[in-house]
Amino acid sequence: LFALDGFTGDVWVNPAEKVRQEIREKREGWLAQRAKLMETSQALCVTRDGTRVEVVANVGNAADARAALRNGAEGVGLLRTEFLYLTRETPPTEEDQVRSLVEIAEGLAGDGKQDRPIVVRTLDVGGDKDLPYISMPEEENPFLGVRAIRLSLKREDLFMSQLRAILRAGEGFNFKIMFPMVANLSEVLKARQMLESAHLALEKEGIAHQWPVETGIMIEVPAAAMLADAIAPHVDFFSVGTNDLTQYTMAAERGNPDLAELADATHPAVLRLIQQVVEAAHANDIWVGVCGELAGDQMGAGLLVGLGVDELSMNASTIPQVKAMMRAVDLSEMQTVSKEALTASGAPAVRDLLREFLEGRV
Ligand code: PEP
Ligand code: MG
After folding, report:
1. What is the 350 CA–ligand 2 centroid distance (Å)?
2. How many Cβ atoms from other residues are within 10 Å of residue 296's Cβ?
3. Per-residue confidence band for 131, with pLDDT thresholds at 50, 70 and 90
4. What is the distance in A from the centroid of ligand 2 to the CA of 241?
5. How far away, in angstroms, is 13 Cα from ligand 2 center?
6. Omega within 30 of 0 (cis) for the link into 91
7. Res 143: pLDDT
8. Which tens digits make up the pLDDT trace of 228-273?
């Protein structure tokens, strides 16, 4: 017999009755709290003083999309398309991709509402995530290598097939397209040009597809954050990927447990970049979301809204909790805390600030 505490990661082998009882109680408490949160999670997310915050989900397959709907997501802020590519020996055909994307869109439209926004991110592989059917040279630093949009722009055959599939699957739904790991305006312009070509080709072939389609980029590379004002006029939205943005800003690999403190997205250096991105977006009348882990972190979510972020995209399971937290705070308070966080000494100091701010509220 084993026992596992999912909060702490502690595992017991043949636990004593006392331990079993404690774990059972903890689980029941958690389930009761969760059931309570679920009662209000379908309602829109509004702060105590009436500011609307859009709360959407990160998904990778149809089961995730159904979970998003159940947990009260207003849409999908990040559809990771990697799963379509990673689990096979040969590239998926355009038809395969259309089928999978439609299945996900239908999962989110389980109640018949087909116009929920779904932000589809184009392929983010390469680097440390190899595809068996793409031969790539070994790289010394895969995270700094031919990843994501860099790979898509090198492999136009794969990219074009994906863009066509997304546009076709979007027919009758409300898809938006997002390019990952952008570092430069030229990448955005090239990718948009290819998207336009995909549309023109489908039109010429008489194939039904969604057009127009809102097009945005992920802000994950510090260069893109710093150039946000130059890029904003060329896109419809930004979505900040705090996982990678933190890794590249702090030069601390995201999966390395020894660097956990450095790789914390609440670090003021990362927050200052996000602030810059929000300002550039709003000055150009486009919206900005966050789809990295920080958005679903009860502490991080308030910080981001305080910085002016319009949309938070997170794992479905964290939605009820984040919505409940937002309802317990005022926008002006979050703005004050965020401002203070920008000049804090580091991530631990920011976490202290947030703990103090949230204490007794949720
Ligand atoms: C991110 O980098 O924050 C992000 C959301 O993308 P991924 O986690 O898929 O790299
Ligand atoms: Mg990323």
Report:
1. 23
2. 23
3. confident
4. 5
5. 37
6. no
7. 92
8. 999 999 999 999 999 999 999 999 999 899 998 899 999 999 999 9
